[in-house]
């Protein structure tokens, strides 16, 4: 479960990114996080992954308190999270399979676990025949599927997708978002940060809208629908 309660975040340069934000996401939910540039979306991701800590308030992620987490606990927190980036962040010199191996070895997976898990995840994302390819030999949509597979390979309870379709055309964007929804239906909590209104509107999922560091809309419906807060 993810919970932010009365969270403020001010950076050393004086920029206040969050202004008393509160949000709760239950296990197994699919949530779009939307809002204009500067609304606080990137800061929320940094808080949830332990990259930064809140100035005030409480942040809980999968049983870990990010308000006072010890440095030694951060790797354990991150094992519960899979993060998907807009720019893929694949290792160019490694094959699809070896990119996955790298992610599993980073958390201490055994050779047996690696051999069993990777084929399953590659099949789930439709890349079982691409495991020996290098990233540059794949299309943009296929590279994003590798990034999704890498986020999934350690069986996280939660996936955070940061503009996962930002570099793709509309058809590939829909394809990727449909895949994320299918993964969510298998039990993984999904938080998707995006600015693509048309794509959000095609899915009847919970939409949380940020503006100036606060939640100004929260509900199932279309991007841009506000509550009375």
Describe the structure.
- This protein is an alpha/beta fold and about 230 residues long.
- The chain has helices at about 40-50, 75-80, 95-105, 110-125, 140-150, 170-185, 195-200, and strands spanning about 1-10, 15-25, 30-35, 55-60, 65, 80-85, 160, 190-195, 205-210, 215-220.
- The strands form two sheets. The protein has a six-stranded mixed beta sheet with strand order 6-7-8-3-9-10, sandwiched between helices. A four-stranded antiparallel beta sheet has the order 2-1-4-5, covered by helices on one side.
- It is globular and about 45 Å long.
- The chain starts with a strand and ends in a 9-residue tail after the last strand.
Could you outline the blueprint of secondary structure elements for this entry?
Layout: E1 2-10, E2 16-25, E3 30-34, H1 41-48, E4 56-61, E5 64-65, H2 74-79, E6 81-84, H3 96-105, H4 111-124, H5 140-152, E7 158-162, H6 170-185, E8 189-193, H7 197-201, E9 206-211, E10 214-220
Parallel strand pairs: 3-8, 3-9, 6-7, 7-8
Antiparallel strand pairs: 1-2, 1-4, 4-5, 9-10
Helix pairs in contact: 3-5, 4-5, 5-6
């Amino acid at each position: 479960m993810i919970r932010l309660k009365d969270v403020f975040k001010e950076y050393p340069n004086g920029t206040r990114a969050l202004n008393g934000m509160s949000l709760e996401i239950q296990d197994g939910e699919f949530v779009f996080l939307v809002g204009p540039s500067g609304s606080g979306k990137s800061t929320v991701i940094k808080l949830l992954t332990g990259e930064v800590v809140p100035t005030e308030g409480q942040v809980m992620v999968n049983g870990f308190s990010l308000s006072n987490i010890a440095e030694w606990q951060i790797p354990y927190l991150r094992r519960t999270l899979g993060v998907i980036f807009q720019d893929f962040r694949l290792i160019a010199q490694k094959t699809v399979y070896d990119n996955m191996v790298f992610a599993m070895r980073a958390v201490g997976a055994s050779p047996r676990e690696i051999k069993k898990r990777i084929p399953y995840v590659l099949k789930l994302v439709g890349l079982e025949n691409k495991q020996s390819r290098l990233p540059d030999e794949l299309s943009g949509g296929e590279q994003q599927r590798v990034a999704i597979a890498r986020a999934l390979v350690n069986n996280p309870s939660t996936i955070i997708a940061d503009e996962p379709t930002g570099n793709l055309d509309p058809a590939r964007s829909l394809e990727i978002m449909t895949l994320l929804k299918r993964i969510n239906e298998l039990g993984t909590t999904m938080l998707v940060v995006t600015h693509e209104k048309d794509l959000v509107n095609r899915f009847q999922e919970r939409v949380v809208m940020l503006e100036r560091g606060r939640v100004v809309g929260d509900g199932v419906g279309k991007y841009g629908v506000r509550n009375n807060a």
